[in-house]
């Protein structure tokens, strides 16, 4: 009886093997195609997700990490189960940023010297359109620094509402709170920012002209001309992070700032190549030594002239901008 059944069992095994040879490649190919499609789908959302994460964190490096973590979660999701990928990914990135903001606040409180958000080149559109004063203001160093005062949920509500035009209902869905709570978070965030700064609007042409005059006066040691450009209460923030020579406290007052800037630029005259770029929505100065990006500077304007100067000298904070500028130069 066993002998009689052996050929039949052998034939069934061969049939199963044959079917498997045909079905397994088809299944693997189908799964690969779905994963490839999912990867391509994610890439269409990557710029928007980076823009969201950067506004939430004020750090390009941390924003890239958050977006990459979102990709891993997206890759782990079952293909076809996410009905609205853009909304799903925005919620994932927002929550990843909320988790990071707690530890980031502790790190910034312990930061050596003044903390300034990482500069990002914006002329290429990496943070979205920069056509209006409101769009440029939203990514300015002044606003991003003030946003450090907000609670993480307040910051998320403000970014989603102002930068991405989310309704309060949609914000509530992202933050898993009531619509009334989302409205309250947004209102409080707006009040905190309004209390912390005076609004001033200037044209791009005015910004370009003032930056050129500022650079000429500072680099030429023309203290009288530089003094005329500065408001009486001007402040300089210099971010070296303990890794580059910088003032460990803000330099305040016109006379102090003039002396500080003239001394600083005198060190840059020899060996530093100065050029211009659009960074965080405004024209800015970048300095290179031996081809390496070593300094970045941007102005803040008010009714009385230049009210603030932000300098980033920390090489870690210049890395993302350096890569951007290099890529732009390579692409013509």
Task: Walk me through this protein's architecture.
There is one protein chain. The protein has 332 residues and is of the alpha+beta class. The protein is built from 12 helices and 6 strands. The chain has helices at 2-57, 60-76, 85-109, 133-138, 141-146, 152-162, 168-175, 179-196, 204-219, 223-229, 254-268, 315-330, and strands at 230-239, 251-252, 273-279, 282-289, 292-302, 305-312.
Gross morphology: globular
What is the structural class? alpha+beta
Spatial ordering of strands, largest sheet: 2-1-6-5-4-3
Number of helices: 12
Q: What's the N-to-C terminus distance?
A: 81 Å
Strand content: 5-15%
Radius of gyration: 26 Å
Return the string of H and E elements. Answer: HHHHHHHHHHEEHEEEEH
E-strand count: 6
* Biggest pleated-sheet summary: 6 strands, mixed
What are the defining features of this structure?
332 residues; alpha+beta; 6-stranded mixed sheet; 12 helices; 6 strands; 61% helix; disordered N terminus
